[in-house]
Design goal:
With about 200 residues, this protein is an alpha+beta fold. The protein has helices spanning about 25-30, 55-60, 70, 100-105, 130-135, 190-195, and strands spanning about 1-5, 10-15, 50, 75-80, 80-85, 90-95, 115-120, 120-125, 140-145, 150-155, 175-185, 200-204. The chain is built from 6 helices and 12 strands.
């Protein structure tokens, strides 16, 4: 799974490619990658584990009645734009990602793929944060489509706590911070791609 982090004095931008990128970086571009300066080679991995016990936590988390796309601008806002296909499946996530945070997630192998069972089906949970932050009971599971075969796990954070400023307070919505993807769609989110580490860190 490709995750990029561009850090600098004024911006810390990240992007999570949930599906295989359509373009590959050339050698000159990859030569700018700083991740090996901070993370040893043996830590540059995305663990794949089986954990059926997390189902007990998943069933306690609230599940939104509406799709993630339908509730956008009504029940929540997002930090930046996120790429979706025409059906509503999220293909990529743009987010605030500081260098130190990214390095910590990689070193501790917090980014992982967990095989589990939920609602009578096999699902894979892809974590974007430490597990206790992903499976927090106050987080929300948002279905991506009415097929209910893929969900995002989000933390709804108050906009003012994240430094967002709205000219009209009535327009203020909680900000959805992405913590994980729960998917039964192996075709949409292929396992062989998700467990292949492709981390890119660069000063912008």
């Amino acid at each position: 799974m490709r995750i990029t982090c561009f850090h600098g004095d004024y911006s810390n931008m990240g992007y999570i490619y949930l599906t295989p990128p359509k373009t590959e970086y050339n050698d000159a571009y990859w030569s700018r990658n700083e991740i090996s300066q901070y993370v040893s080679k043996e830590k540059l991995s995305i663990p794949y584990v089986t954990d059926l016990d997390i189902t007990l936590t998943l069933i306690q988390m609230p599940v939104s009645e509406n799709t993630f796309k339908a509730d956008h601008g009504k029940s929540y806002d997002t930090e930046y734009g996120n790429d979706m296909n025409k059906l509503g499946y999220i293909m990529g996530i743009e987010l605030t990602l500081a260098k130190n945070t990214f390095v910590d997630l990689v070193i501790t192998q917090a980014i992982k793929v967990i095989r589990t069972e939920w609602r009578g089906h096999e699902f894979h949970l892809i974590t974007f944060d430490h597990l206790e932050n992903v499976l927090h009971p106050e987080n929300v599971l948002y279905k991506l489509t009415d097929a209910k075969d893929a969900f995002v796990i989000v933390q709804l954070k108050q906009a003012e706590d994240l430094g967002f400023d709205y000219s009209n307070d009535s327009e203020m919505q909680p900000i959805a911070l992405f913590k994980g993807l729960l998917s039964a769609r192996k075709d949409m989110y292929p396992l062989e791609y998700l467990i292949k580490p492709d981390f890119f860190l660069c000063q912008d």
